[in-house]
Structures are given as structure tokens and as C-alpha cells.
Amino acid sequence: MKNAAAVLGVYLLLDGGPVRVGTLTRDARRSTSFVVDEGYIRAGAGRPVCSLSWFDSVSEDATVARLRAMEDKIGLLGQLPPWFAGLLPEGALRSLVETEMSHGDHDDFDVLARLGGDLPGAVCVLPESGIPDTGFTWENLDGFKVPLPSGLVKFSLAGVQLKFTAEMADGRLTAPARGADGRYILKLPSERHALLPEMEFTAMSLCRDAGINTASCRLVPLATVLGIPPAFREHGGNALLVERFDRTATGGRVHIEDMAQILGAVGDRKYTMANIETVWNMLRRFSGDPYGDVIEGMRRVAADILLGSGDNHLKNWSFRFGHGGRRPRLSPAYDIVPTWLYDRDGTLALPLGGTAAAAAIGLGKFRRAGRFFQMDVDLIEREVRDFVLRAADTWPALVKDLPMPADKADAMLARMRGTELFQACTSTAGPSSPARP
């Protein structure tokens, strides 16, 4: 296709059947634009939500105005509108996609056209004109003719870590999965970060034990996975297998949207365009259970502080939509990595209360956010304190049975005990005592 004029249809493939949302077009000057279909607009307040950035929970008129507005639905020089750019892979996976495409100057529109049959969530982007048949086979999905690219990468997953979709058949894992069959994400060992699957599995397990809702995951020996080229087996013996919460056991799709997409944060702006209070405020505004999800979000930030998890940026916070693409809830937690063990950088990806210095954040920052949200600050403090106390009680023993090396675990726990949050929560001060900032 190489930058030629082309048209893509944008759909949500939901349990009630496919819904056409709009048309994404690239013209001969490589400008791209997304126009929402009139049928989707006229469906009224019961329509499934494609993006919360185009949704107003109070006013249907305001929702329609956002759907019709074009300011955030245009891209120049082959770039996609920000919401669609947020569907594309980054880093090593993006590089692998580009090497598998034919030679030429391929832009984001080309990549989306190639991978549009298997995107995060329920979004499906299908060629309608200007896309040649070469380099694809074609499959049927919900009555649509969907392109299945040749090569290893037939899907898109956000993030920079090298990963594949995987499927389970007859007790054996195969990666990459064929088209939309991938119910799992297989995260491979890293040349740069030793034992990365083991480190992430340990952090995810610790968080789950302490009460955080995490994506289901387990370590699998790479030798047992079919289809992985030898070059991707060189940096470790295990991979992390994560069950996708945007896919169902029967092969259906569940719509999801991350906070970077909602805010239009592309690339490195996932670190700079917001703070933690912004994330919690979006939970308060959009969640079907705002109180519960804000408190769960506070537990996750407390976990980041204790673990030294410094990469919880906007793309690692997502909404998962319920039946019919409505009633969003905070998705299970994912991509929890104790990055401090690799770089000794003690800053959070997003600041809280004006600081990103994780070790200096105490209970007062959580109480201050609660006051701003007009929530019960004593309840918030109790919830955060209870989480930290459970971690303090259980993690030192639990980590001994997890695959993190003992010296790394000792360093992580020693750093945890030195944080202001840990010391404040394990002191004798109760929720009614003055909390330090």
C-alpha cells in the first residue's frame, strides 16, 4: 500500500454483534481522518462506547458533539489520530512488524491496516479500498472478510516489550496465535533486563496475594512453546504467559481502552501528559463503581511505591467495558515490574501530590487526593494502611517461594521498609492521627 490513498472501516466486535463506528481515511497527501458514522451517532445513548474521550456521561448532546468534532480525529503525514495510534505496537514488536512488511516507507496507517483484524479490545479495522491483496490471506470473522498477514506478527499489542499472542490446543501452547485465536499474551525474555519474566511474575504474584486484582499469569518454559523462532529463545528459559482480559473463553472480544488513548497521549507523552490524580479522577468520572475503583487504584500506587515499580504510565491503566460495551470498570492490573532492581531509579512513572519520588510519598498524599474527590479520607487511609500491612506481613515469606533471586528480593524488601509509606503504615498511628505528607 505504501502511503497510497485508502479507506478502513472501524468496528466494535461485541457480544451482541458487530457495530460499525466509522471510517478512517488516508488521502493522497497522507493526511488521515476519522469520521464517525451517522448510524452510530443516531443509535443514541444506548450505543456501545468506543472511546470515553468521545463520551459524556451526563449529556447525550455533549456526546454527539464530541463524536462529530474533528479536532482529535485527524493525523498528518501518515500519522494516525491519537486514539488509533494508541492501538499500535511500539519498540521491538513494531520493528518486527516493519521488517515483515514489504520494502518501502510504511507509515502508521499501513501498520494499522496490516494488523487491524487483531487489535486490543473489541476494535476491528478492516480494509475497504486501496489495500492490495498481496501479503495477506483472508479469514471470516463475525461475517467479515478479515486480513491475516503473512509472517510472525498478525496482531497488535501496545508496549515496548517483545511479546506474542498465544493459543492453547491439546495442552500445547503455540505462538504466535493464528489471527484472533490468541487468548494469551506470551512475554519473552529480554536481552537488556535479565530474568524479566521471572521478575514480573514475582511482582504480579505479590500484588495478587495482597489483594490487588491482577491479570492471571504464570511462567512457562520456552522449550514447551511451539512456533517461537530460535533467535527469541536466547535470553532466558522462561516466558510469562498472561491470560487476556479482552478475550473470552469462546473467542469473543471485550472492549478495553487505556488512559493514554482517552487523553490522546501518544509515545512518551504517556509519562508526561498526566499525574496519578488524573488517573484516579478518570476512575471517579467514568467507572461503573467509582468508589471501589478509586480505592483499588490507590492500592496499586501503594504497590508501585513498595515494589519500586517505576513504569506504571498511562498505558498501564485501562478500563474494561461490560456487556454491550457499556459500564466501564478498572481492568485487572498488568505490567507490574520492580524496575528499581534494574536501574535503581526511585521515581514513579506519574507523579502523585507534586512528586515522583516514590520513597518520600506518605499517607498524606492519598488523604489529600481523597479530600479533592470528596471521599471518606479515613476510609482511604484504612484501605491503604491495610494493604501495606498485609504486604509487610506476607511478602518476606512469600517471595522466598517465587522465582526472584534471593539477593534481588532482599534488596527490594530493604528498600520497601525504608519508604515513608511503609514506615507510616507500620507505625502505631491510626487513621485519625495526623498523616505525614
Alpha-carbon Rg, integer: 22 Å
Largest sheet: 6 strands, mixed
Q: Within the largest sheet, what's the order of strands?
A: 11-13-10-8-9-12
User: How far is the first residue's CA from the last residue's CA?
Assistant: 55 Å
CATH class of the largest domain, named Mainly Alpha
**Shape type:** globular
Structural class, from helix and strand content?
alpha+beta
Supply the number of helical segments.
Answer: 15
Sequence-ordered SSE layout with sheet pairings:
Layout: E1 6-14, E2 17-26, E3 32-36, H1 38-42, H2 60-68, E4 74-75, H3 82-85, H4 91-100, H5 108-115, E5 123-129, E6 136-141, E7 144-149, E8 163-169, E9 172-174, E10 184-187, H6 196-209, E11 217-221, E12 225-226, E13 238-243, E14 256-258, H7 259-263, H8 269-272, H9 276-286, H10 290-307, E15 318-320, E16 329-330, H11 340-343, E17 347-352, E18 355-357, H12 363-372, H13 377-398, H14 406-417, H15 420-426
Parallel strand pairs: 9-12
Antiparallel strand pairs: 1-2, 1-5, 2-3, 3-4, 6-7, 8-9, 8-10, 10-13, 11-13, 14-15, 15-16, 17-18
Helix pairs in contact: 9-10, 10-13, 12-13, 13-15
Could you characterize what this model shows?
The structure is a single chain. This protein is an alpha+beta fold. The protein folds into 3 domains: 6-149, no CATH class; 163-243; 256-426, Phosphatidylinositol 3-kinase Catalytic Subunit, Chain A, Domain 5 (Orthogonal Bundle). It has helices spanning 38-42, 60-68, 82-85, 91-100, 108-115, 196-209, 259-263, 269-272, 276-286, 290-307, 340-343, 363-372, 377-398, 406-417, 420-426; strands at 6-14, 17-26, 32-36, 74-75, 123-129, 136-141, 144-149, 163-169, 172-174, 184-187, 217-221, 225-226, 238-243, 256-258, 318-320, 329-330, 347-352, 355-357. Helix 13 crosses helix 15. It is globular. Residues 431-437 have low confidence and may be disordered.
